[in-house]
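Most newcomers find our protein records easier to grasp once they have seen one. A learned vocabulary of local backbone shapes supplies the integers on the structure line. Here is such a record, shown just as it appears in the course material:
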Amino acid sequence: MYRMSTNHEECKKELLNYYSRYHFEWFCSLNMSQSNIIDANALIKEWVREMSIKDHIQVACEGVLNYRPQRHIHLLMRGKNDKGQSLLDKDETLWAKGWSTMTHRNAVIEPIENTGVLEYIINKNTPISRHEWLTPYNMRLLKKFAAGN
């Protein structure tokens, strides 16, 4: 079993290496109300399922719930369908609108162009005792992406 370092700075380096394997396509910044990690996981699951069906695409994602300065989620997403499309072929504004409709909170979704967004999430959004990692969504698909599929 893999054990992550207990040193916070070492953990950040390990997370950067881990996330870099997936070549995520979208970075989402999703505002939420005063909710906890259980609520955040449920909202992500509901939102991704609903939007995946509408957009005819399989999606996998991972992210972090940050408690400062206000509760918000930073989510990394990747997707594909049987037509060879990825999330980069989809309209992220429709997904942002879906989040806003469901939660009555703002969402910003942007295509990922470099690894700077990974460093931003890990270095600026993982303060000790002020964040929680979300449960990965569709881990089987994430593993396929890591294997190069």
